């Protein structure tokens, strides 16, 4: 990326000062001094004139060495007609013409003017480089990538096979448009890539352009909107004009929600700059012919706030979901990124993919980079499983804070708290396996960490599994109450997550015995379905009280489940806590062995 330095007016002031100084040094010696004729005669008598040039009305000469101002040019008006006789008397060289100073005088004017013009041109160019000029305000800011600039293909995009299959048709249309138009078919005018951040939407769009070998116009939705009214609409028009000139091509608008937010909820009125820009985009999408070969692609992670007019058939009439990858997709993405690092030969990519459930492509790229940096820090030649396991912990829980001093009493509380989570998770069915328990502080506020890694991707969860998850989260608070007969603030995040799950069970999943199979959550897309935009609920206060009661009952019941498990496992809890305080880290297998030994 080109680096722009901030322009400073001090540069101009210093330049002008330097030009003036240079001018004085160059031309001060060439200045011609005007003398009275009497003073000239006096200098002549004193022998301080070296040479002169005489015309009918003027005498110009140079002072001799030894005179004040030696070598100085002078001129005087001729008064004495017999001056030649006097010059001969005093043996002064003279001639009958004035020395021309035209070029010297011209140079004394031209050099400063040229320097000033050069500095001014440089200043204007720098200012235009930092801020567009008036004539370019209506020009679009799209970055244009030609075929030779795009080195991204479908082979570089892994883990989104379904999305790639949807976009293969776009590539084939750009390569062979006649194949589709022969039967009267038309390519969709707009293709909207929808998915969470970091899933590869922008890379997919570049891969489409790279595979088809056509120019690629890339810009963000926020680059259309400016403080000057009408500029956004002008840029939209200019963008489509340029695209038609370079057809076939692809226009890609990233973060479309910055431009295409639903109209009517901005609070500024119906004629603000963003809405005018959106209106112009809608008009342009209606006006261009898809057979010309201009494909409009856009990406957003907030499709629920887009204007309905953008999503109707004839505009963005094809939506492609670019979701987080599953286990096989994560394995494929990891293999792509592992090509760029020196990985160990025995690296278990499938195991790493299983440890990274829910991560996007950007998360996996960051994970590989973190593992490589850890290997360098440990002075290793290859990146192995140990570095990847540590990288997963860094990404999920944060950086270890080994230098954070914790008093022994607090460390003891943290140890029992984390083991409470782990023992409840081991005892209940359907919970994620425990991989590691540590009391080394991580991140900003975590004083300990229990790492549970799912063995497979899950898309549905039963009511029993949700209840067991709540009990596992409350196991830390239950362990504190059993061992210390008191509780601490360390469970605030656990309580938050448990309450969210319980409230979702009641309001969204219909898992409440009192309220039945009813959906009470507010709609995520109020502008589409006409729900209240001010956050008002569609159920009564009595129903809200019942929801709160149900949430409290679920939380209370699962807390008792966790407490009973830990009271039964109290000997294991004590042994494991002593071991954890000694080693600061234990893995899930060690905890399982302790449980088996205690039961035996």
What does this structure look like?
- The chain has 600 residues and is of the alpha/beta class.
- It has four domains: 31-100, Signal recognition particle alu RNA binding heterodimer, srp9/1 (2-Layer Sandwich), CATH 3.30.720; 143-321, P-loop containing nucleotide triphosphate hydrolases (Rossmann fold), CATH 3.40.50.300; 327-397, Helicase, Ruva Protein, domain 3, CATH 1.10.8.60; 408-599, Methane Monooxygenase Hydroxylase, Chain G, domain 1.
- The protein has helices spanning 9-27, 37-45, 83-89, 102-130, 161-175, 177-181, 201-212, 231-245, 257-260, 273-287, 308-311, 327-338, 349-355, 361-377, 385-397, 408-427, 463-484, 492-507, 526-529, 541-568, 570-583, 588-599; strands at residues 32-34, 49-54, 58-63, 73-77, 93-95, 143-145, 190-194, 216-220, 249-254, 294-300, 318-321, 434-438, 449-452, 585-587.
- The strands form three sheets. It has a six-stranded mixed β-sheet, with helices on one face. A five-stranded mixed β-sheet has the order 1-4-3-2-5, with helices on one face.
- α17 (463-484) crosses α20 (541-568), α18 packs across α20 and α21 (570-583) packs antiparallel against α22.
The largest pleated sheet is described as: 6 strands, mixed
Detail the poorly predicted runs.
1-5, 130-138, 267-271, 525-535
In helices, the fraction of residues equals 40-55%
> What fold name goes in the CATH topology slot of the largest domain?
Methane Monooxygenase Hydroxylase, Chain G, domain 1
Number of strands: 14
Order of strands across the main sheet: 6-8-9-10-7-11
- How far apart are the first and last residues' alpha carbons, in Å? 65 Å
Give the rounded overall mean pLDDT.
Answer: 78
What is the overall number of helices? 22
Strand content: 5-15%
Structural class: alpha/beta
Q: State the name of the first-level CATH class of the largest domain.
A: Mainly Alpha
Radius of gyration over all CA atoms, rounded: 41 Å
CATH architecture classification of the largest domain: Up-down Bundle
Q: How many structural domains in the coordinates?
A: 4
What is the CATH H-level superfamily of the largest domain?
Answer: Peptidase M41
Coarse shape:
elongated
